[in-house]
Recover the amino acids of this structure.
């Protein structure tokens, strides 16, 4: 399967939109992240790969302030508050969680509106909504439908669309292809590639490593809560290459 995306630009030298230093996270007495350092450049798409239980979801949650953590996360040079996801989101960081987190009993239209609940500009709200519906035409056909009654792929489109309604400067995505058919996965990842080429910085946690590698400017490999490698996707030509770094 090919995503048929345009050639990736080298964003590794772009100024950092987000930088984490010594980021650790825990659930009770269980430490899930251990001193993670990472950097995301403006307009960069960075993939985070690793086996189940590596701490990938915890990393995104720690950035958002959704888990107890130590260390520092800076966004465009300013330190982000700990344990305050609303304040983090207000800076322009939006998470599409694993499982989508939709308001299932509500309509597609209402879910999109809630994505922009802090926005007071009606003209901007209309512009964002039209953009989301252009990216995901199936949502336009289902505006009045209850979100929980849609297919998994349509729900994932809605979850991403709702995130875009917030006008993110950095989009965090946790396993967007989980449980989806290959054709729908390809469609969603192509849309993410388009958004990135338009300048949106993205951190992508993705189980389908080959697809993530096609899109990413850089890759962090995470294992047992630690970054074990930072790679150029062009240097990874097979599953054996990835496995070599996992078990190095």
């Amino acid at each position: 399967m090919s995503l048929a995306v345009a050639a990736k630009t080298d964003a590794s030298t772009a100024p950092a939109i987000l930088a984490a230093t010594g980021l650790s996270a825990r659930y009770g007495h269980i430490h899930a992240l251990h001193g993670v350092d990472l950097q995301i450049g403006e307009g960069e798409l960075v993939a985070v790969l690793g086996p189940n239980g590596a701490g990938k979801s915890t990393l995104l949650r720690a950035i958002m302030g959704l888990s107890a953590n130590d260390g520092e996360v800076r966004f465009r040079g300013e330190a982000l508050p700990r344990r305050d996801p609303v304040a983090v989101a207000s800076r322009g960081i939006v998470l599409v969680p694993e499982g989508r987190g939709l308001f299932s009993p509500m309509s597609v239209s209402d879910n999109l509106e809630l994505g922009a609940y802090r926005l007071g500009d009606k003209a901007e709200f209309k512009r964002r909504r039209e953009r989301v519906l252009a990216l995901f035409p199936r949502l336009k056909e289902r505006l009045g439908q209850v979100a929980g009654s849609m297919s998994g792929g349509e729900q994932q489109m809605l979850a991403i669309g709702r995130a875009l309604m917030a006008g993110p400067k950095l989009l965090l995505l946790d396993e967007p292809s989980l449980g989806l058919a290959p054709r729908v996965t390809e469609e969603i990842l192509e849309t993410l590639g388009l958004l990135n080429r338009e300048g949106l910085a993205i951190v992508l946690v993705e189980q389908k490593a080959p697809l993530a590698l096609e899109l990413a400017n850089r890759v962090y490999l995470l294992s047992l809560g630690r970054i074990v490698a930072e790679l150029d996707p062009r240097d990874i030509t097979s599953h054996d290459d990835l496995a070599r770094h996992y078990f190095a």
Observations:
- The CA atoms of residues 100 and 161 lie 11 Å apart.
- The mean pLDDT is 90.
- The chain is about 35% helix and 25% strand.
